[in-house]
């Protein structure tokens, strides 16, 4: 049986991810002592965001996060979608596949104490929010230029920490992102990037997107082991100062 070394994972390893009858292509990079796992979703037949998503993935990896860049459409589907543009709008398909990928990643391949976040752009960002609405183990979602119009009915169920990044000149989607912001948890944040367009792919803007994603995941993702130690330390200190208080045990493990 072939084994994979840590050195291979730290430089990125291509893989086929089983999601039922349709395996998906992904590339996993796992640094030592990862701060969390960020799943970066591609699913646009025109590949509008692929290169810039890869740039963000590289930035996050250099910042200490494990990353999985995954194509939510198969190569044949990408060819079909490039002609019809239909599959990219199939939000339930993309969301269900992202949920399956997330569950598959919660396996012996990845340390069990890593919290999981999503990074996605455009239509895939809407699918990521839909997936997070039914996947409570996803701690955080960063959306770039999100198309949220097709997932509005699911936003109130999202429990993850959400950051919406949208360009000031993205007149087609700025209003929708502002509307989505009010349907998300109170912890959500909306950042409008000055003088930026829809793709947020201008060099300075893209650097800002990557930095904001790093900041968001650094705040919201931490290892469960660390969280448990910190929680037990807080409980111990509180009990020492007030023996009358009762602290219920909160299970932060993955179901």
Largest sheet: 8 strands, mixed
Specify the CATH class: Alpha Beta
**Can you tell me the CATH architecture?**
3-Layer(aba) Sandwich
Radius of gyration: 19 Å
**Which range does the strand content fall in?**
15-25%
The SSE string, one letter per element, is: HEEEHEHHEHEEHEHH
Overall outline = globular
Please name the CATH topology.
Rossmann fold
Q: For the residues shown, what is the average pLDDT?
A: 84
Number of domains: 1
Residue share in helix: 25-40%
Number of helices: 8
Which key terms come to mind for this protein?
255 residues; alpha/beta; Rossmann fold; 8-stranded mixed β-sheet
Description:
- It is a single chain.
- The protein has 255 residues and is of the alpha/beta class.
- It has one domain (10-222): Rossmann fold (3-Layer(aba) Sandwich), CATH 3.40.50.1820.
- 39% of the residues lie in helices and 19% in strands.
- The chain is built from 8 helices and 8 strands.
- It has helices at 6-11, 50-62, 75-84, 91-105, 122-133, 174-181, 203-220, 224-241, and strands at 13-17, 24-29, 37-42, 66-71, 116-121, 138-144, 161-167, 189-193.
- Strands 1-2-4-3-5-6-7-8 form an 8-stranded mixed beta sheet, with helices on both faces.
- β3, α2 (50-62) and β4 form a beta-alpha-beta unit.
